[in-house]
Amino acid sequence: MLEGINHNSNGKQKRLQELVCSIRSKLEELGNESYGSKALIQKINDLNTNQTPAIQSQNIQSKHEKMLRAALAEATDPSISSIVRDIRACLRDLTWEEDRFEFYPSGSDVGIRYIESNLHTQLIGPSGCVAKSTEFMLGVFILGPWTLYKDHSHVAPELYLNLSTKSDWRFDFGPWQSFGAGSLIWNPSKQVHATLVSEIPFLSIFAWLGQVNCLCEVHHSEDHSQIEKQLSQSFKMSQDQKR
Predict the structure, then answer these.
(1) Closest by alpha carbon to 85, among 2, 25, 133, 43?
(2) How far does the chain reach from its first CA to its final CA, in angstroms?
(3) Considering only CA atoms, which of 62, 54, 79 is closest in space to residue 132?
(4) Over 80: is that where the pLDDT of 47 sits?
(5) Confidence (pLDDT) at 238
(6) Burial annotation 84-98 (CB, 10 A radius, 16+ → b, else e)
(7) What proportions of the chain, in percent to the nearest 5, are helix, strand and coil?
(8) Which letter does DSSP use for residue 166 in this model?
(9) Exposed end of the chain (fewer CB within 10 Å): N or C?
(10) pLDDT of the residue at 140
(11) For residues 224 and 205, is the Cβ–Cβ distance under 8 A?
(12) Please, what's the largest Cα pairwise distance for the chain?
């Protein structure tokens, strides 16, 4: 059980397990703020990393490394400092991947900026670099600035632990709400939800608490085009200012 660090692990595995432990500690600190956090803590505690092999890691994809480091640089809230510290410590140990319709049916209209700027790593899950699991998935998720992650749903119940200072969310096409670092977002099975990222890259811990091989479904909204147009203009302005 992952009650602590396996001190017989090599340096890489020890660093990765420390990251999982810092995530669990933050969830425990937040207490019963979310049903999902309590369930996730139990799943982490029940995991036996000593008997579960980890996959080989890959280097960070170079085209995303700048975005990744920018996201970490902006994650300055003291409440999540231990998690950010541990992500930094094992950057080169993690297996970073883009979602190229791994989580969506091929051809789904997920949006250009999502395709350009999404990045994730599985700590625990089918491709976990700490431990393989078919029961749940835990990892780190990043979106680049000026991105609309369109309204979508999935059978898997989902928990986010935000590390960014600001991101906007809506649920079941309701009003947009802002969430800061250290906040939890619980998406029950099949709840429609969307994320809006402005000038600061979005960085978070994510977890699927079951049905880890399910596919997401995009739900069309009439305001998608207008939101993406506004974000595209802001993105171009930000790029021009850097030149």
Answers:
(1) 25
(2) 51
(3) 54
(4) yes
(5) 83
(6) bebbeebbebbbbbe
(7) 35, 25, 40
(8) -
(9) C
(10) 97
(11) no
(12) 55
